[in-house]
Amino acid sequence: MSFGGYRSTGLRAPSQAPVVLRHRLTEVTGPLLTGDIGPNDNDLTTQHAGEAIGQRIVVFGRVLDSDGRAVPNTLVEVWQANAAGRYAHVVDNWPAPLDPNFTGGGRVVTDAQGNYSFTTIRPGAYPWGNHHNAWRPAHIHFSLFGRSFTQRLVTQMYFPDDPLFDQDPIFNSVPDPAARQRMVSTFDLSATRPEWALAYRFDIVLRGREQTPFEEPHE
User: Does the entry feature the keyword Oxidoreductase, yes or no (predicted)?
Assistant: First the structure.
């Protein structure tokens, strides 16, 4: 889908009408994505020998359907920039420091009540060249899988009161202001870990009037 303010969507958006291919049995039944999760997969601060640099945070919430019912056994993956706003990726070469003890990827499977939780570092903003003096607000990418690769949803979580919201075309590509706010987490003092980490709640609703905005790969 092309969005005027987000320049690269003009190159990414398809130039012809999409062709819908019928899912075959192998696509809707497998591969299954509820395999073993490693002990540090949901703690991005302890995946390396040293301590990650930055403000520790806990990001937690529930995955829900349109009726507010829990969605259990859903694989939730995250990826993000480090505290300086740089990704541990070969094509990210803007002059911010890399953190050898933080690679910015994690995963967890929701429990019977649809709960998930990650411990991580609050990411920094970064420049991205979309327009003059363009900076992305701090954000964390979320990917949710159902029972197979064809059942995947991708969204972004933002932090409250970010001064970069107004000039970010990705955030503003969601036309409904109320829907945009559903991508913004809520600071939760009661869930903080005293003298250790701040906490942000981010509930994800898969469909319905209160649905979290997701990327639309077929438009």
Answer: yes
Q: Which residue has the higher pLDDT, 207 or 170?
A: 170
**Residue 126 annotated among the catalytic residues of the structure:** yes
Q: Is 6 a catalytic residue?
A: no
**Interval 79-110: pLDDT, tens:** 999 999 999 999 999 999 999 999 999 999 99
Give catalytic status of residue 87 as yes or no. Answer: yes
Catalytic position from the list 141, 147, 182, 201? 141
CB 98 within 8 A of CB 88: yes
Per-residue pLDDT tens for 56-86? 999 999 999 988 899 999 999 999 999 999 9
141 catalytic? Reply is: yes
pTM of the model: 0.89
